Amino acid sequence: MSRFIKDHIITELEDQLRDLGEVLVVDMSKLTGTDANRLRVELGQNNIESLGVKNSLARLAASRVGLEALSPILEGPSTLVWGSDDVVALSKQITAWAKEIDEFEIKGAAVEGQTLDAAGVDKLSKSPGRPELLAKIAGLILSPAGNVAGALLGTGGTIAEQVKSHSERDE
Fold it and tell me: Could you tell me the pTM of the whole model?
């Protein structure tokens, strides 16, 4: 491969990786054609992109855009996977595919500057995603108001009614 072509490929990889904070690396080389197509179609429907790369070119492009955490896991056949709503949703989908297809192997990930191995990606897939965390935060914010409302409807409400009825009777 000529130097011009390598530079062009590296530039294209840099453009694709530039704004990414998290990228998973998988091995799709052992998949059958049918499984590979099924996987690509479903990933595309969920706004997840995949790209088979040459490791040396991917390492160079990743280091230029600040994804040095990818370097340790770029060994052997590698496909970069990114996209989805958040990294947890991405890891859940990729982990589900790894369980469904035995030949599909998760090699690791680069998440917020840290390198994760396959076990780390599996652990990440079991954690709550962005929507779940937002729901928990909203619940925590609203719980004090719910406690006050509950107190007013319970025994506090009974006391308030009795005070009101006594004040009306006195008038």
Answer: 0.71
